[in-house]
Amino acid sequence: MQEKGSISIHTENIFPIIKKFLYSDHEIFLRELVSNAVDATQKLKSLGQLGEFKGELGDLKVKVSVDKEARTITISDRGLGMTAEEIKKYINQIAFSGASEFVEKYKEQDAATKDQIIGKFGMGFYSAFMVADNVEIFSKSYQEGTEAAHWTCDGSTEFTLETAEKADRGTDIVLHVAADSDEFLEPARLRTILNKYCKFLPIEIEFEGEVINQTQPIWTKQPAELTDEDYVKFYQELYPFSEAPLFWIHLNVDYPFNLTGILYFPKVKDELQFSRNKIQLYSRQVFITDEVKDIVPEFLMLLHGVIDSPDIPLNVSRSFLQADAAVKKINTYITKKVADKLAELYRKDRTGFEEKWSDVGLFVKYGMLSDDKFYEKAKDFVLLQNTAGKFFTLSEYQEFVQANQKDKNEQTVVLYTTDAEAQHSFVVAAQDRGYDVLKLDAVLDSHFIGQLEQKLEKVTFKRVDADTIGKLIEKDETTESVLSDDDKTKLQELFSKAISNPQMQVQVEALSPQDAPVIITVPEFMRRMKDMQRAGGGGGMQMFGSLPDSYTVSVNANHPVAQRVLSADDEGSQKLARQAFDLALLAQGLLKGEALTAFVKRSADLLTA
Ligand SMILES: Nc1ncnc2c1ncn2[C@@H]1O[C@H](COP(=O)(O)OP(=O)(O)OP(=O)(O)O)[C@@H](O)[C@H]1O
């Protein structure tokens, strides 16, 4: 018996469209066909468990083979198989409706979203026609007394269906590879594709006599069954040549959505490494993509690992995905899990947590900055480190500095350095006053400081060199000046002349005689604006685009040098003032080039004078 028919379909020219627009993703045909074979095999196993299939399951391997001479790729399974009637129903009707749905969706979209749909649409059986100009199905149902069937189709809407000889139950899909798809006749190419998409499929896949997959990847197991080594080993399988991860989270939820996976915290050496190893997204152990943007919260993109969820809609455009309720829930769930894990690590092993802080800190701060819920959880375990290397939580630190570092307005002033080496003299000056100095020199710290100032009550952050020590934390007490007002004005003029630089605002201040004769500071507000601008803040920050660096030069009225400058002759006072100013530049790391050479020479002269 042979039957010829026409596949009922409203879109006549479906194949050219499939072929043309799925161009970049032709390789997924193999994923689609192998996962169909796996599905058919699992269905048979379930029927066995239900007692509806009483035969021997036997070897259930799915076999993929290629015959270069004959130009065929064959995917064979020993699953439940199809009768001729079922082929008509499932292949001619159902599979086609999937393909025509694709074309319909595709037509509705504008050009920008078209690209996105194309990559994401599971094309199912008909994706075979992306690489084949003729496809055959040989199938025999598991049901007793049914005949094997043979279906062929050349990619038009015409098909033939006839009875066939097939001893064993299951399905063979034979692709006759089209002339423009020769690459898929190369075993190495097929192996690469299988490795990418089928590496963790739940039924064994055999290619060239070898099983290429792990049927029970560790994310499908219970955490209690697994050791640390298992997790590290799996990480290294996913990302060969990577350093071991810091720690990981095993995700497992089945209500209100289904999701399993393992998220690893990598050891990040530099910023460039962030996105090198991406999170891989699976749907029932079939690899889908490693473009998980919108499915995983932005700040978690720094993590690595796998997420497996059949509830993530894969065949829709990005903009739809963002609005999708399931995706939103997944986002919230993952964020919560990650925060809980970090809280647990902090609680159970504070020392270990501190040791990992240089790697984890960036991630925690990124999370706090980008997600309010995460902030609320992380504020209890986010750590601050001072220049002595000691770690504090936010509340511990506030407690620690509040006796000494409250200004006259009851504001707690937190002092920090962005470079303990370069700002050394300022750090020491603060410490001499009994103040503590935090190290806030990480990538996101300038943003993090801004956030803490908003969230914490009555707390201000100032970099150690933002002002002279007395003004960094303003107290009620004032230091009296030993100079008269006239002398102060004169001193200001003498220094302005010696410095002669409009970017340097000279002011005379009554500091302690122990402080330096001249101190150059960088006002906090202006510096932050410039920092943000440098960090690419863009937008509103652009108006500061033309701002020069701005410095304040504080001349210490109570330092003996002030008296000497005032009492020296013209030349002598200029020399002294310049020397004292250069010392201040030196302390700020600003003395360079010609000015540095002149300073060295002048110093030698002064030594011999
Ligand atoms: N190897 C196979 N063995 C048994 N039935 C199969 C096999 N391949 C396909 N089928 C049947 O054909 C149907 C259509 O397959 P197709 O791949 O187009 O869509 P799907 O698997 O239902 O969905 P998806 O778009 O996710 O692949 C399947 O649902 C299944 O019933």
What does this protein look like?
This protein folds into four domains: 2-211, Histidine kinase-like ATPase, C-terminal domain (Heat Shock Protein 90, 2-Layer Sandwich); 218-349, Ribosomal Protein S5, domain 2; 382-472, 3-Layer(aba) Sandwich (Rossmann fold); 485-608, Four Helix Bundle (Hemerythrin (Met), subunit A), CATH 1.20.120. The strands form five sheets. Strands 1-6-5-4-7-3-2-8-9 form a nine-stranded mixed beta sheet, with helices on one face. It is built from 19 helices and 22 strands. It has 609 residues and is an alpha+beta fold. 35% of the residues are buried. 40% of the residues lie in helices and 19% in strands. Bound molecules: adenosine-5'-triphosphate. Adenosine-5'-triphosphate binds next to helix 2 and helix 3.
Briefly characterize the structure.
The chain is an alpha+beta fold and 609 residues long. It has a nine-stranded mixed beta sheet, covered by helices on one side. Strand 5 and strand 6 form a beta hairpin.
Reconstruct the topology from this structure.
Blueprint: E1 2-6, H1 14-21, H2 28-50, E2 62-67, E3 72-77, H3 84-108, H4 111-120, E4 132-140, E5 148-153, E6 158-164, E7 170-177, H5 187-197, E8 205-207, E9 210-211, H6 228-238, E10 247-253, E11 259-265, E12 279-283, E13 286-289, E14 304-308, H7 318-323, H8 325-348, H9 350-370, H10 372-378, E15 383-385, E16 391-393, H11 394-401, E17 412-417, H12 424-432, E18 437-439, H13 445-455, E19 459-463, H14 469-472, H15 485-499, E20 504-509, E21 518-521, H16 524-534, E22 551-556, H17 560-567, H18 570-587, H19 593-608
Parallel strand pairs: 2-8, 12-14, 17-18, 17-19, 20-22
Antiparallel strand pairs: 1-6, 2-3, 3-7, 4-5, 4-7, 5-6, 8-9, 10-11, 11-14, 12-13, 15-16, 21-22
Bound molecules: adenosine-5'-triphosphate (ATP).
Protein name: Molecular chaperone HtpG
Family: Belongs to the heat shock protein 90 family.
Keywords: ATP-binding, Chaperone, Nucleotide-binding
